[in-house]
Amino acid sequence: MPTPKVSVTMPCFNCGETVSKALDSLLVQTCADFEVVAVDDGSNDNTAGILAEYARRDSRIRVVSIEHGGVITAANAAIEAACGRYIARMDADDESLPERLAAQSRLLDENLDVGLVGCRIRFGGCREACAGYAHYVDWTNTVLSHEAITLNRFVEFPVPNPSIMYRRECIDEHGMYRDGDFPEDYELLLRWLEAGVRMMKVDEELLIWNDPPTRLSRNHPRYDVDAFYRIKTEYLARWLARNNPLHPVVHILGSGRTTRKRADLLLAHGVEFAAYYDIDPRKIGHIVNGVPVVDRNDIPGAGEAFCLPYVASRGAREDIAEFLNGRGYELGRDFIPVA
């Protein structure tokens, strides 16, 4: 049997209500040279029966059944069983638009230096009820180039996991998903970027990212905000050691309690804080754990400080970037956003 160009890996657990729509979206792809490796992770609903029926109807769908081990075990089992030159991820509650596999594989064909590609995605939930998720989707759709992905990797997860496609060699060289008290998809992306894997996105909507209440990222502690910051900090600390010309000293933009809680994680990695900077006159002049809170206008000149904006309120990141650019600071050279 010929090797497919693309393997779509799909972990499945109790997804009987959604998996048919996900599979149907793949079976109408304009690229026909693919397989689907659907791993039934010990489901106790009708998932196994639905997968078996689809596999009976279309030989491109292969089903692997395992004892319940969780999404990481299932995702890695799918990767191990995949035969394709390119490996795509898809969740069993999302939908791929018809051009997805063709467009993403074409981008990899045409850019031999690129290891992983994503795409713009369409939010499939309620924008009013799930405004935070919708805002995140809108943000990811602005982060398209390798440079943008690289410089925004510590803000949020810039390439949503269900949208990725990558070369098999990336797995061989840099490993699969790792288990731990952190979001495994974000950790994989940070690890691959740290290893030098180039990434970019197709500038088209190719995936509908649904937001059901059962989504793991809403319910599992591995995906809570603190878990994101723990793994983010680990990779950020190593990035600073390589890229901050004034290492280990950094300047923190923001001085609120949440900012300090998240920035303080860097202290365990040997990073030192010169100052916190704020625009709130009620905070300026205070000393917090030996670190002064300084008026933002008194920030050192470009080349004299490396800054980490830790302010996460909507619009604050853009405001800080405009402020720093106005002072001659360059993104990636003099500062990198982390919230």
UniProtKB/TrEMBL annotation:
Gene Ontology molecular functions: transferase activity
Domain Glycosyltransferase 2-like: 7-170
Alphabetized UniProt keyword annotations: Glycosyltransferase, Transferase
Keyword Transferase: yes
Record carries keyword rRNA-binding: no
Family per similarity comment: Belongs to the glycosyltransferase 2 family.
Protein's name according to its UniProt entry: Glycosyl transferase family 2
Originating species: Pseudodesulfovibrio nedwellii
